[in-house]
Specification:
Layout (H helix, E strand, L loop, with lengths): L11 H9 L4 E7 L4 E7 L5 H12 L7 H7 L5 E4 L2 H8 L3 E5 L7 E5 L28 H11 L5 E8 L5 E8 L5 H12 L9 H8 L11 E3 L2 H10 L2 E5 L5 E4 L17 H30 L7 H10 L7 H21 L2 H21 L5 H14 L5 H21 L1 H17 L1 E2 L2 E2 L41 H4 L8
Antiparallel strand pairs: 1-2, 2-4, 3-5, 4-5, 6-7, 7-9, 8-10, 9-10, 11-12
Helix pairs in contact: 5-8, 9-13, 9-14, 11-12, 11-13, 11-14, 14-15
InterPro entries: Spore_Ger, UPF0353/GerABKA_families
Subcellular location: Cell membrane; Membrane
Protein name: Spore germination protein
């Protein structure tokens, strides 16, 4: 008899005793005409339909006398014969049925009957698009892998599964395309995941924080997406994906700053429209960060730079405001953040009401009460609106947070303070990396070839090469000469 490798351990009695303390663990004795056997399983992890229809009719029959014969009779592939109690513990917690010929006998048969409960594939909620596919990842690891397999129908797609979390034993899968992806990136990801020592891993965001290069940076260094089409496209570029069981978001790296401002919708539109939308997003993010600090700096230190006509408008709007510009701006910015958090935490219908009604009522009341000026109210509202143009939610949170350091520097040194804070920000971004790759690529270090799909997107016929900073094993995606538009035969 050949069994799964493992050393016999005398701890099965203690193992069963520990499981018996849980009310959903079942163990009972039964027998056929010739064989007495014991069945053990955790009821809440087992698919009862599989147990009653595919397993128990064979077990109760007289067709077997040994575990090897039972394995041949049951029409289920994942049947393990083992003498290793560690394997028994792991598989019982994974929804397997334990069949043994005595109560604590070894070897035992482990039959897979795992109950998989997951919601159906639905529409993307965070990265919704008007055109393009309407599928989003769900909380099932197998379902998410299936969504990617359908889009990358290639034998070179590699999936490396592992468990992480000392207590949760959360399953995750590392995906990459062999022959394209740089093996160094794969080894970096796997090694960093293996180095994680944490008891409970509940979501992919845990992994993102733990394998990031700089844990003290407010910028996300791993791309988080819920779109299978985006992950498939990025894997084809030569990057590495991480799917965590129980999370509807997939991590992809190494990534760059410009990717967080690139929506996947850009590839569904004409390149001229897509480039325009990207530039609008970049302008909106810059506007969102700087417009309120510039208002504070100008009114505090540099009011002589304001044109006289505009200055009269500002003076009339602030005539009855007792607060200095910095307190006025902080009051409105914090109010916007409170409304955002309240709208996000409350039920959907109530949250929408709070966001709309609360913004109108509080904004109007604060102006009428003389706490803020109507000019600043418009500026803060436009700033908040501009921050919503960021396609990736995690980067949107970073943009929201960055306004406050700029506000404080503007109050301290005026426009010079804004420039100083901007220098600190650029220095931080220059030093930041994603899985060891430059985070500001292709802006720094400058790579002209990668600029074709960075700030703007050029036609597909010009995107014949994969990003240089990934150092892929196959830099060329297709022949650029063949991609050129050919004339019709009658032209």
């Amino acid at each position: 008899m050949t069994y799964e490798s493992g050393k016999e351990k005398p701890s099965l009695v203690q193992l069963i005793a520990r499981f018996r303390t849980s009310s959903d663990f079942l163990q009972y004795e039964a027998e056929t005409n010739e064989v007495k056997y014991w069945i053990s399983y955790i009821r809440t992890l087992v698919d009862m339909q599989t147990l009653q229809q595919s397993i128990m009719p064979i077990v109760k029959s007289n067709k077997w006398k040994t575990l090897e014969e039972l394995k041949k009779e049951i029409p289920i592939e994942n049947i393990i014969l083992t003498i290793d109690t560690d394997v028994i513990k792991e598989k019982l917690l994974d929804g397997y049925i334990l069949v043994s010929l005595t109560e604590y006998g070894l070897p035992s048969a482990l039959i897979k009957a795992t109950l998989n409960k997951a919601r159906d594939v639905s529409l993307p909620e965070v990265e919704f698009s008007v055109v393009g596919p309407k599928e989003a990842f769900v909380e099932s690891l197998e379902s998410n892998i299936n969504l990617i397999r359908k889009r990358i129908n290639n034998e070179n797609l590699r999936i490396f599964e592992m468990n992480v979390g000392d207590l949760s034993k959360t399953k995750l899968a590392v995906l990459y395309v062999e022959g394209i992806c740089d093996e160094e990136n794969v080894h970096t990801v796997i090694q960093r995941i293996k180095d994680i020592h944490f008891d409970q891993i509940s979501d992919s965001s845990f992994i993102s924080q733990m394998i990031s290069d700089n844990h003290n940076s407010p910028f996300p260094q791993i791309l988080d997406t819920e779109r299978p089409d985006r992950v498939s496209s990025i894997l084809a570029e030569g990057k590495v994906g991480i799917i965590v069981d129980g999370s509807p978001h997939v991590l992809v790296g190494p990534t760059t700053l410009v990717e967080f401002f690139s929506a996947f919708d850009d590839y569904f539109y004409n390149w001229i429209n897509a480039s325009f939308f990207r530039l609008v997003r970049l302008f909106a993010v810059t506007f969102s960060i700087l417009v309120t600090p510039i208002y504070v700096a100008t009114l505090t230190y540099h009011y002589e730079l304001i044109p006289s006509d505009l200055l009269n408008t500002l003076i009339s709007s602030r005539r009855e405001v007792p607060l200095p510009p910095i307190l006025e701006a902080l009051f409105l910015e914090l109010t916007i953040e409170l409304l955002r958090e309240a709208g996000a935490r409350l039920p959907t219908k109530v949250g929408q009401t709070i966001g709309i009604v609360g913004g109108i009522v509080i904004g109007t009341a604060s102006v009428e009460a003389g706490l803020t000026s109507n000019v600043l109210l418009i500026i803060v509202a436009l700033s908040a609106l501009a921050s919503f143009t960021t396609p990736i939610y995690a980067m949107g949170n970073t943009i929201r947070m960055l306004r406050f350091p700029f506000l404080l520097f503007a109050e301290w040194l005026g426009l010079l303070g804004i420039v100083l804070c901007f220098c600190f920000l650029i220095t931080h971004l220059l030093r930041l990396t994603s899985l060891g790759r430059p985070f500001l690529d292709p802006i720094y270090p400058p790579r002209t070839a990668d600029m074709k799909d960075a700030i703007i997107r050029l036609p597909f016929s010009l995107l014949s090469k994969r990003p240089e900073h990934l150092r892929t094993n196959k830099p060329k995606r297709f022949s650029s000469a063949k991609a050129k538009k050919n004339k019709d035969i009658d032209e």
